[in-house]
């Protein structure tokens, strides 16, 4: 079943000349983790903002969880989607952690007794309950993004959209955020759409879509996409460590497998190669 | 740097801390009004007793209150001196041109000084024992009647709380930009007034640009989280009016009655 369906989408910003999207089509399956990659300005943020109804298309049809996106249904559609943006500070609305998690619940007019329960559960979920009364200045970027995730979890959405949500974080913060996303995807079967320049994040996905100037140029499983090596930089990604290592090995005239290897796969392959000799 | 403006709140668990912010806000205003009813030393003694009593009940360090007076000391002294030298009446001790030092002048000067100190102490007590956000909440509640004349009360209060939330963030950013500009040789707080104004420009421009970007991001994020105006939202933070708040109000009313009585001593 498709949870997001985009048909013949056409869009352009009022102040721009060229179309950002022209007859664009995309289907996203329920429970899928889709990574969207592409160089800056390729239209990734614009695309997810269209899905969330934050921008209105010129023509075409967007359906989210069975609801056709129209000016009347936009709030219903938004209630199915939770979005985390790039800058941790600029999406922190509340004066402190619990207040920020409650913001979305207040908007949805959830009764206070239930808010108290949901705020606590969501914060425990992301490991931030003990920081409930902390102001944003006392939190790291990773902690702020975890609070943003708690704000989303509390609202029980079906889809989580990450627009470069980990790009301003240190490796540790990035890991802690990805850990939560992985769990939400695998345990609760939430659909995840993540825009990223980070290969590790993209390799968590079941499917990778490469955007270039508002067009899908590749749509495949991560292993296939990342095996193109050198072209990765062109599509806006750093090649993964294992790919870089492979290229070095080829220079040493060692035969390496063609398909993409994860870090773990690389380790396995290396020790197997080593013990064969 | 984040502590300068509104970070005066000192968390605690006294009776005063636990009072409903609405009660504290109302009583602070009430107090400022009744100060102007005091007209003899007995009434000032009464008001000082009330203030000191409130401070003791709040169990906060008295040094905070002295600190509250210090930045205003020149304004206070100036006003007091004006009172002393320009009001006449009673025995005149000294005269020079338009200036004269009279008995009433001295008394008035002392009263003005007391008024200043009382107002500063009480408002310091309010901000020391009440989180800025709680004050914003109280303002929202107290402004509610204004909704009838189409004042966007919810929006004003959300604006206020977002502004409060971003003060430390923008302070941090200011500090960062200042350091960046210093490393390029800009001197802050040095040189002629013209030079100082010039030094502020490279500070304000990036700060404005970044604030507008933040505002745009924040608006998008709020919309994505389902914000569509203040109407029909529920509230996570609530404040309950308790017996202690009623008792506090009663104490202030009693003080007012005694004060009215003392006026005609
Ligand atoms: N608010 C806007 N107004 C006008 N043009 C915009 C706006 N936001 C993005 N664009 C333009 O749309 C294109 C796609 O931008 P965006 O979706 O942000 O790309 P990405 O997220 O992939 O980096 C770019 O050419 C960008 O300049
Ligand atoms: Mg983007």
From TrEMBL, chain A:
It is found in: Cell membrane. It is a peripheral membrane protein. Keywords: ATP-binding, Cell membrane, Membrane, Nucleotide-binding, Translocase, Transport. InterPro entries: AAA+_ATPase, ABC_transporter-like_ATP-bd, ABC_transporter-like_CS, ABC_transpr_CbiO/EcfA_su, ECF_ABC_transporter_ATP-bd, EcfA_1, P-loop_NTPase. Signal peptide: none annotated. The keyword ATP-binding applies. Residues 4-238 form the ABC transporter domain. One of its GO terms (molecular function) is ATPase-coupled transmembrane transporter activity. SUPFAM superfamilies: P-loop containing nucleoside triphosphate hydrolases. GO terms for cellular component: ATP-binding cassette (ABC) transporter complex. The keyword Transport applies. NCBIfam families: ECF_ATPase_1, PRK13635.1, PRK13648.1. Belongs to the ABC transporter superfamily. This is Cobalt transporter ATP-binding subunit. It comes from Liquorilactobacillus mali KCTC 3596 = DSM 20444.
Automatic annotation (TrEMBL), chain B:
It is found in: Cell membrane. Its main location: membrane. One of its GO terms (cellular component) is plasma membrane. Coiled coil: none annotated. The chain crosses the membrane at residues 21-38, 44-65, 72-96, 116-139, 151-171, 240-262. It is a multi-pass membrane protein. InterPro entries: ABC/ECF_trnsptr_transmembrane, EcfT. One of its GO terms (molecular function) is transmembrane transporter activity. Keywords: Cell membrane, Membrane, Transmembrane, Transmembrane helix, Transport. It holds the Pfam family CbiQ. Transmembrane (T) component of an energy-coupling factor (ECF) ABC-transporter complex. Unlike classic ABC transporters this ECF transporter provides the energy necessary to transport a number of different substrates. Belongs to the energy-coupling factor EcfT family. Forms a stable energy-coupling factor (ECF) transporter complex composed of 2 membrane-embedded substrate-binding proteins (S component), 2 ATP-binding proteins (A component) and 2 transmembrane proteins (T component). This is Energy-coupling factor transporter transmembrane protein EcfT.
